[in-house]
Structures are given as C-alpha cells and as structure tokens.
C-alpha cells in the first residue's frame, strides 16, 4: 500500500499532447498529399494530356489496393500483431514511396508518349497515368493504415483522459494539411511547374517519417512504464489482441452496418466531390483558377475550426444521431443547388462550400466517437479498420464513375487552350442521390439507437 504510484509518460498533459502533435504532423502531411493533385485537374489535361477518365482513375487509385487487395484488413492485422510503432513506420514509408512514384510519373513519364520498359500504355491507360495511379494506390494504403494506427495511438495515450477531444484535434490538424494542399496547388504549379506541389508533399512526408521515429522513442518508453505498472498491478498479459470472434461480433451488430453505410455514403459525397470541385468552380461559376482550389478546400478549413467545437457539444449534450441526420440533410441541399444549371453565381458556390464545411464537421464529429460507443475498446481497432474498408469502396468507385460520366456525357465544348468544358449537372445529381441515401441511413441509425440502446443521443460526459 505504501508503494509509490509511478507516473507514466502519458500522465503528463504536455507529453501526451506533444505525442499527439507529432503523429498528427505525419497525418497532416498525408492529407496534404491526398488532396494536392485535385486542383490540378485542368493542368493535368493541358500539360500531361490526361482525360477526365484518367483523372477519375487516378483519384480512385487511393482506395484501389485497400478495396481489391484488402490492404486495410491486412493493415489492421499487422497493427494488432506487430504494434503501432512498426505499423506506423511501415505505413509512412509506403506513403513516402508511393508519393515518390507519383512524382516520377508526373516528371519522368509526363506526356502521352512517355514509355516505361518500351511500353506507352498499361491496361489501356497512358504509362504516366498508370504509374501515377500505382503510386497514389501505394500512398493510399499507407495513408489509411496510418489513419487506423493513429486512432489506436490516441486510444492508447488518451485512454481515461481527453480521448474524444484528442480525436477531434487530430482530425482538425489533418484538415490543415488538406486546405494547404487545395490552396497551394495551382499557384505553386504555375510558378514552379506542375509536379512541384507533389514534391513538397514528398518532403513533408519525409518529415512525417522522422516525426514517427521520434514518437516511437516516446512510445517505447511508455510501453516499458505500462509493463512495469501492469506487473505491479498483477495484470500483465491482458492486452487486447486481434481475434476473429471480434470480427464476427462486429459484423452481426446492426449499428456497425448503419455506421459503415452512413460513412461510405457521406464521405463519397465529400472527398470525391472535392476532387472535382476546383474545376466546377472554374467552369460553372467562373472563379479564378488561382483561388478555385482554396474554395474547393473550404470544407476542410471550416471543419478545422468546427470539428472540435461540435465534438465538445456532443461530449456535453449528446444528440449524435440527430446531428448525423442534420449533416446528411445539409449535404443534400448543397449538392442539389450545385446541380441546378440556372444557379451559377460565384457567391452561391462559396456559400455552399461553407455549408458543406459545416456538414463535414457535424457528421465526423458525431460519427467517429459513436463507433466508440457502439463497440467495446477491445473491438475498436478492428471496427475502425472494417469501416474504413467499406468507406474506401466509395472513395474508389465514385471518382472513377464521375470521371467516366464527365467524359461520356458531360463534354459541352472546348476552351481556347484545347481542354474540355464540362457540364457538371449529371455528376452533381449523382452526388445528390448518394446524399439522399445517406439521410435515409442516418434516420435508420437513430431508430436503431432507440431499439438497441447505443446511447448515441446521450452526452459522453456524465455530470
Ligand atoms: C479517409 C479516412 N479513412 C477517414 O475516414 N478519415 C476521417 C477521420 C477518421 C478518424 C477516425 N478516428 C476524416 O474525416 O478525415
């Protein structure tokens, strides 16, 4: 009884938040790279002869390996088997390697006639497009596995502490990366050449890798302290391990399917939409090319400020299920108005982006902590990996579909520089339809909450 309680590294507020900032930097770099190519769609057409189909194919590449080669599932297994330090470093190395390949495709393999090993077409795509796709696919595996790893890191370092706030802050910091990507892409590409924003991403990711090595030193120390504490408490060997029984338990839970469905539908209307939004801003609303990316990135900027605010509200007041309904309803309004051909005033486009930013803060700040309410901590890593997996199906399929639809149904003319003019009405109707489905699922989730008692409407902090 007289034995003095030893303070662990994460018991110090400054150290645990310091650790969060270090891993959040890696994720910030990942979100920058994820979004930085999107505003360059038109330049890719003029400078590298990409079509909209090429762009959609490339954009869907982020999720290709995650979906068709089950990389998120393997990533989850590796995470549970080999731990956060190994998996985090591996994921970041994949992001660095993938981005380096993407950069090579945009420099060494630029243009329609570029050849690699004597071939200038792979699976019907220009070699440069295919190699960029391959690089972005490898990056996507790293980014998603890093995402679940960082969720697990936060759960480990903040358990019994400011867990929800820490998750909100990490997502908010990631949004800075996204917004930076959207804002700098076009001006930087114009000033320093098309691939330069990708090169900056590569440099940031190398910084992220160094950051992860620094975090690993801290985490190793924490593990040692936890082991000592567990030995002192006689609870050693009781760590959570991956088990196939957990997967079964998760899959039979209706809450899992409703959250996963809402996640894939909602995110399919945000991330893939943003990838095409810069061009929509330029073509339909006549917004200057240099700032179109900044406007397309507005939802990320709004979410940066609002996600922690809404997270705090949910912690104190609850209402998660109702907030997800509200976010989905706002999404319908935004995409529906974007779809109306007669409404083409630039201020409307910006106002809608701001509303999208509010919806993009409401749903994630309610959804991700809701997963933690539905599943016990021992199943959380697996539940996040499975939800990310289902979400990636949309992140692959929707941009691929929109790119194809643009090329087949939406070309309405050509600009002076020879690039296509597109009518975005059909793509926006597709996004509106998906948003309607997300609202239906949000209502079903609220009903399931009442039926199964997930307590989604209850506050997280009990007074
Ligand atoms: C794209 C990625 N799979 C994703 O869904 N990211 C979320 C944040 C998830 C945080 C989970 N603890 C996002 O809104 O960016």
TrEMBL record:
It is a multi-pass membrane protein. SUPFAM superfamilies: MFS general substrate transporter. Keywords: Lysosome, Membrane, Transmembrane, Transmembrane helix, Transport. It holds the Pfam family MFS_1. It catalyses: L-lysyl-L-alanine(out) = L-lysyl-L-alanine(in); L-lysyl-glycine(out) = L-lysyl-glycine(in); L-arginyl-L-alpha-amino acid(out) = L-arginyl-L-alpha-amino acid(in); L-lysyl-L-alpha-amino acid(out) = L-lysyl-L-alpha-amino acid(in). Lysosomal dipeptide uniporter that selectively exports lysine, arginine or histidine-containing dipeptides with a net positive charge from the lysosome lumen into the cytosol. Could play a role in a specific type of protein O-glycosylation indirectly regulating macrophages migration and tissue invasion. Also essential for liver homeostasis. It is found in: Lysosome membrane. GO terms for molecular function: transmembrane transporter activity. Coiled coil: none annotated. This is Lysosomal dipeptide transporter MFSD1. The keyword Glycosyltransferase does not apply. Belongs to the major facilitator superfamily. Residues 19-450 form the Major facilitator superfamily (MFS) profile domain.
